[in-house]
Amino acid sequence: MLLSTTEGIEGRRIDETLGLVRGNTIRARHVGRDIMAGFRTLVGGEIKDYTVMLDQARDQAIQRMLKQAEALGANAVIGVRFTTSQTMQGAAEILAYGTAVRLSE
User: Fold this and answer.
1) DSSP 3-state assignment of 2?
2) Domain holding 73: CATH number?
């Protein structure tokens, strides 16, 4: 399955647009990680636990989006975007979305 942030795939023709697909996950912070993150904010630098958590959340959102696209018979998702929003204090949603298409071979 091809993924692209552009509105098409160079050298390939879109035969059929199948519609919007999306995948999301909601992740909550961990109290122990928050304590360590609080210390990190005092001295600066990357908060690696949160980097890993967000990377895993993006991967899960992409996989869920791909599952929807496959169910529609797509062989590509174009115009892929990510968004995030706070759903409650200490929890955030990561959403991946795009347009499922069938490309020419």
Assistant:
1) strand
2) 3.30.110.70
